Inverse folding.
């Protein structure tokens, strides 16, 4: 017997008028479908309590608070076009989008034209997810990236979301779109930064359309504040022989969840959703991924690695769905966790739902401590205990960074972040 | 250099070493032989300071100073090197990073300047060449996918880089074919010097054909049961542990 799911109502969720008829209609529909926010007795939200996020009610004020530190972090990222949002609103001064042939990068608030086939389309089937319908109803901004067919963009596009919160906790909504035409190649780096101690609730949805033979490398780096809350939901659909290489690198937050839904519709498409969580103190992070194989000979990887210290809590929920005609599917799920304290907590739930008969699907989960033999080996060579631990943790993260298929520049950047995280332990 | 006095050690509350005495001087090569379960590996781990190997009596002096209160890495920085019977595989840490971190950690602990990337590269290329270790093996993760012989050569490389005062080599010959054994033996002989002591822990006399020891000890029941020169190893080979230990008792 399953208990009836309980949703937490929220009166503040309402359709924002947009002056665009098709969008207004979709917003009304989203509000009508909005069931409330999920409580922990909604099965998919069993391990993540969103109540602290819901306590945040005021709407994010644009360009408030001190953003200098957060803006400084942008400088550490590879050069390229930059689109910056502060508290969910486009920040003109910090953004820099030079004209690049075959590419358009704009804030949603300025580019509703031509978005009717995209905005709210992939997420429509999931409107019972309160975060998704609320973001459609209320988001005024977000990023829109469109790459024409055959466009090959050499520089990565950097999107930054800065959350300042302030004395008063604030809630922000964003909706974003990435569209890659046939054979287009693109790298997108998203950085989400919370000003230390800032209280905020960032709710975002991104819809990603990857046409035949196109290739997207997509890295999301989250550096939320310990009091911040962030729930991001991403939907992607992929055509024939297209590739998605996704990496989420997060240090968690008070509430943190990144949900990725990939739908493979074109044969021989490949999707990789890789997650690295580095969590300490009371931080929480939830990586929920779902890959649906709706075509033949497609491959997928849902890999999640968590490194947990103190009382941190990491969640991995992976699901591979193979539809009846999706023969020759190769779907892998792997979750590996490293516990650095006895009070850290892991919840892992790998699922397979297979309706085809000629497929290769695997899933596995391991959780352990640092290996005592390895530590002794390193120490016996004169490396002190703290440095030995650091080497082993960096090695654990290294595997995940390497296998995600992102650019060398980003790999180096993430290695530095892992080292930095260890040093501040 | 190394003086072990009446050493008693336990592992998981089980008595393994029961009053072991051993003196090793600079420039000497000692072989410690003994049947399975005699406490050979326990001796090496206890000198290295491994967690879980508890000293419950006696002392271990290194150049007159007790090691018992020192951590594993501090003992290493004093110049003690343990060659592992089963070198540990560490995925994700490149051999090069590992070796450089170790060399510089010890230099730092001794108050010497750390080597920069170029300085280290020069040093390691020369040492790797002596041991027939290809550059590619330095780039791979520590011991991952190495053959038995490669792992032991990698141990010799670490020893050559760290230049310890005392090297304790635990069953370095196990699992090696004759060519690999010769390479490893050459690595050991190259490091013989009047300032350095070497303790070979071994099951068989085979290695001792290539590395001639000054002293041979037989470890049995957690004590040195018998000591002698290299002819003792030959007697062992001919008569077996049981007979020799029975005679000594």
């Amino acid at each position: 017997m399953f208990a009836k799911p309980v949703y937490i109502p929220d009166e503040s969720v309402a359709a924002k008028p947009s002056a665009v008829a098709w969008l207004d209609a979709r917003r009304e529909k989203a509000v009508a479908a909005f069931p409330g926010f999920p409580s922990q007795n909604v099965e998919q939200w069993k391990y993540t309590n969103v109540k602290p996020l819901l306590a945040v009610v005021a709407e994010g004020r644009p360009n408030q608070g001190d953003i200098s530190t957060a803006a400084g972090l942008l400088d550490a990222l590879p050069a390229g076009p930059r689109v910056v949002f502060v508290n969910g609103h486009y920040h003109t001064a910090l953004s820099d989008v030079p004209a690049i042939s075959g590419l358009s990068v704009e804030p949603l608030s300025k580019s509703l034209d031509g978005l009717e086939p995209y905005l709210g389309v992939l997420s429509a089937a999931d409107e019972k997810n309160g975060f998704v319908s609320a973001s459609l109803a209320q988001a005024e901004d977000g990023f829109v990236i469109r790459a024409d067919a055959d466009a090959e963009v050499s520089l990565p596009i950097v999107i930054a979301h800065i959350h300042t919160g302030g004395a008063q906790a604030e809630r922000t909504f964003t909706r974003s779109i990435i569209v890659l035409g046939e054979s287009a190649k693109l790298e997108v780096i998203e950085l989400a930064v919370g000003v230390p101690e800032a209280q905020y609730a960032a709710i975002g949805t991104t819809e990603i359309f990857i046409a035949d033979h196109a290739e997207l490398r997509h890295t999301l780096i989250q550096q939320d504040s310990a009091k911040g809350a962030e729930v991001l939901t991403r939907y992607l659909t992929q055509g024939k022989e297209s590739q998605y290489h996704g990496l989420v690198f997060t240090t968690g937050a008070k509430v943190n969840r990144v949900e990725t839904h990939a739908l493979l519709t074109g044969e021989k498409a490949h999707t990789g959703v890789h997650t690295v969580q580095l969590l300490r103190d009371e931080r929480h992070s939830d990586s929920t991924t779902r890959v649906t194989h709706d075509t033949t000979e497609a491959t997928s990887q849902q890999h999640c690695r968590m490194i947990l210290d103190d009382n941190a809590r990491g969640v991995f929920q992976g699901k591979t769905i193979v539809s009846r005609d999706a023969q020759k599917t190769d779907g892998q799920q792997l979750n590996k966790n490293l516990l650095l304290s006895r009070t850290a907590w892991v919840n892992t739930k790998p699922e397979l739902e297979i309706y085809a008969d000629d497929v290769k699907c695997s899933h596995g989960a391991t959780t352990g401590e640092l290996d005592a033999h390895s530590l002794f080996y390193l120490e016996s060579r004169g490396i002190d205990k703290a440095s030995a631990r650091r080497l082993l943790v960096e090695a654990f993260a290294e595997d995940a960074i390497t296998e995600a298929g992102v650019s060398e520049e980003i790999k180096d950047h993430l290695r530095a972040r892992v080292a930095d995280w260890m040093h501040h332990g | 250099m190394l003086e072990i006095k009446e050493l008693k050690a336990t592992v998981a509350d089980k008595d393994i070493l029961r009053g072991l005495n051993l003196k090793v001087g600079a420039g000497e090569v000692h072989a410690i032989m003994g049947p399975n379960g005699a406490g050979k590996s326990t001796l090496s781990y206890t000198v290295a300071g491994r967690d879980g190997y508890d000293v419950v009596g006696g002392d271990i002096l290194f150049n007159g100073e007790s090691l018992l209160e020192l951590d594993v890495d501090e003992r290493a920085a004093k110049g003690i090197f343990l060659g592992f019977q089963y070198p540990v595989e560490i995925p994700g840490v490149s051999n090069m990073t590992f070796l450089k971190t170790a060399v510089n950690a010890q230099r730092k602990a001794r108050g010497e300047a750390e080597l920069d990337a170029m300085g280290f590269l020069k040093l390691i290329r020369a040492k790797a060449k002596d041991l027939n270790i290809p550059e590619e093996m330095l780039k791979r993760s520590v011991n991952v996918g190495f053959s038995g012989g490669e792992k032991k050569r990698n141990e010799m490389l670490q020893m050559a880089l760290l230049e310890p005062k005392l090297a304790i080599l635990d069953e370095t010959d196990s699992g090696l074919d004759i060519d690999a054994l010769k390479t490893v033996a050459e690595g050991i002989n190259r490091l013989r010097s009047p300032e350095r002591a070497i303790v070979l822990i071994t099951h068989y006399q085979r290695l001792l054909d290539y590395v001639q020891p000054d002293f041979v000890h037989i470890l049995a029941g957690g004590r040195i049961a018998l000591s002698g020169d290299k002819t003792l190893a030959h007697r062992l080979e001919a008569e077996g542990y049981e007979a020799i230990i029975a005679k000594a008792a």
User: Anything to note?
Assistant: The longest helix of chain A spans residues 385-403. Chain A has one domain: 7-370.
